[in-house]
Design a protein that fits this description.
It is a single chain. The protein is mainly beta and 508 residues long. The protein folds into two domains: 109 residues, Immunoglobulin-like (Sandwich), CATH 2.60.40; 393 residues, 7 Propeller (Methylamine Dehydrogenase, Chain H), CATH 2.130.10.10. It is built from five helices and 35 strands. The strands form eight sheets. Strands 1, 3, 4, 6, 7 and 8 form a six-stranded mixed β-sheet that branches. Strands 9, 30, 31, 32, 33 and 34 form a six-stranded antiparallel β-sheet that branches. Strands 17, 18, 19, 20 and 21 form a five-stranded antiparallel β-sheet that branches. It is elongated, with a radius of gyration of 27 Å. The two termini are 39 Å apart.
Amino acid sequence: MYRILYLLAFLSIYYNTCAQILPKEGSKLNYRLVGFSVPAKSKDVKYNIEIATGNYNKEDSFQKNISVTISSDKNNTIAELPAFGRQYTWRAVFMSGKSTGKSELHHFSTTSIPDLDTGSMRIRVTKNDGKYNGAYFFVDGTRGMYDMNGQPVWYMPSLKGIKDESLGEIRDLKLSPQGTITFLLKDDAYEINYNGAILWKTPKKGKVSGDSVEYYHHEFTRRPNGNYMVLGKEYIPWEIPKPLDSAFFHRSGLEKNPYVYWDSIKKGYYIRMELGTILEYDKKGTLLWSWRSSGYFKQPDPKLGVRKMMTLFDTHENSFYFDEKTKTIFLGFRNLSRILKIKYPEGKVLNDYRNIYKDGINGMGNVLFCYQHAARLSQEGDLYLFNNNLCMIGVPPRIIKMEMPATGDEWLKKVWEIDCPVPQMNMAEPMQFVAGGNVIELPDRAIFASLYGDQYSNIFIVTPDQHIVWSATPEKWNKATGKWEGIDMYRASIFTDQKLLERLVWGK
């Protein structure tokens, strides 16, 4: 009798606290990995969440169509629904000893977009040993999140103030330590929640660049302390080194470059040079810290073997990694094949990792990487990166780990390397990789990597002993050719932490 009275009291509280019921009645969700929550009362009450595909208001029709049942000791749980673009009915069943009670029926639906149609776009998993089946990954070229079987579980919905057609240009889509989603779109960086509400956006100011905007690009990261870091650009006058001749102007394209001009006072040719910046903001959008690469590159070459910039007019800063433990930043420049190690917050360049040019020799002396991307620090303290290998035409891109030298004048020492598997579909000859790519070291020291571009679109996980244990190819169907083609993606990212998944779903 006591248990029955207790359960009735519990249900009474349940019905009067509908604000704690999730999903909310009539919700339209852009995901099928859904958090279900009902009010909690006592530790000895257990919960069953019953879910039926369809919209039902009568007990018998609902009962016949239950497709998912989740049992839990907690009043909230996460369940994966069968499909997008469906209506769902659900209820909670409460159990206390031999007594049971049921909530009323609740209703919601999942929405859809054309890109979720696997007949037009898909993530084709080509290998999966099952080890990482609890993980999820993002592909910015599809604006989606997937399970390790390649099935979409979330997609970016329409965002306030942004045209839907521009969402295909999203870059660097990933999960933050706070369980939010961050990405770049055109010249702005955004943070959104699971439902697609914009939580934060980079300020429209040019305090560092000196222009009206900061030209945000390539990489946007939220730090564990809540601050935001993003790459920017600045443009400065850069003297073209003498002597100059017509052959050089023609060969380098300077004669047609609208940003080249003659300075009659300084008696020299100048170009509008693109250089990189790093900016850090707080939650209010206040600029807390910044760093300019121009301050370093404008100095006379301080070390033997530094690549001269006489024929380069865009250093192309393309990635950064903030090591929270040592408070250092690893900043990559693709066109220079260089990575700077910067002390934070002092801004001092501690080291300059690069291919070294020997005195009197035009060629490279130490070709370990060329036009690299996504330089990171491994758990062992090694520098690892995605090597696009532009200097070696016909050679696939590589993931490489290097032991960092004590000083910038010493050569980097390779300690680990693997060729990236390249899809044979629509293979161009010879192979040539120029940009993009991503590498993320997992907790077990395996590496999750993604290749850039529609011709070479591929994602894989490789173990420290160089075994590929999972791989997938993002593809889209070309109606004109009647063939599957790679998706033009910039980066893929992964997370394996279930606590991060809970933060994402529950918004905490």
